[in-house]
Design a protein that fits this description.
With 157 residues, the protein is mainly β. The chain is 3% helix and 60% strand. It is built from one helix and nine strands.
Length: 157
């Protein structure tokens, strides 16, 4: 299940500069329904018989790509962009609301590799290296509302 997204990070001010950061994201999601491997992938789970946990719980993994846009404004201003790759893994549960809609809460840990922030250190009066590299990671709560428009293929079980 491919996913496209946009993230606006909270801005911060340090030494008279206001820093802002946003990113455009692409995730390549894979869900493994480990408690019900014999069942087909006929989503949403509303039409499936059985326990909601058994039919809806999954483990989640996703390689990711981010395109960052950063800006620093103060006595000097710089802006630029960089890319980053990473991985997100976690667990979730599909909750069938109807034959057409599924609500999916998830929790996941995400880690990205080091990104090169070119010329960011030039804001310092005596930079030893004009480039700064950083990576990010964190625990995230996610919520997805999925819908299926193909009503002709509904099956009751």
């Amino acid at each position: 299940m491919p996913e496209l997204g946009y993230t606006q990070f909270a801005s911060s001010s340090v030494d008279g500069y206001k820093y802002s950061l946003s990113s455009f994201n692409a995730y390549f999601n894979v869900h493994a329904y480990v408690l019900d491997l014999a069942e087909d992938c006929n989503c949403p789970t509303f039409s499936k018989q059985g326990n909601t946990i058994k039919k809806g719980f999954f483990l989640h993994a996703a390689p990711l790509f981010r395109y960052y846009v950063h800006k620093a404004e103060g006595s000097q201003s710089i802006s630029g962009n960089t890319t980053g790759i990473g991985f997100r893994a976690g667990a979730g549960i599909d909750i069938g609301l109807s034959d057409f809609f599924t609500l999916t809460p998830m929790v996941a840990y995400e880690a990205t590799g080091k990104s090169n922030w070119k010329d960011l250190a030039t804001l310092d009066t005596n930079p030893a290296n004009p480039d700064i590299k950083s990576s990010g990671s964190g625990l995230y709560g996610l919520m997805r509302l999925g819908f299926r428009l193909n009503s002709n293929n509904r099956r009751r079980r």
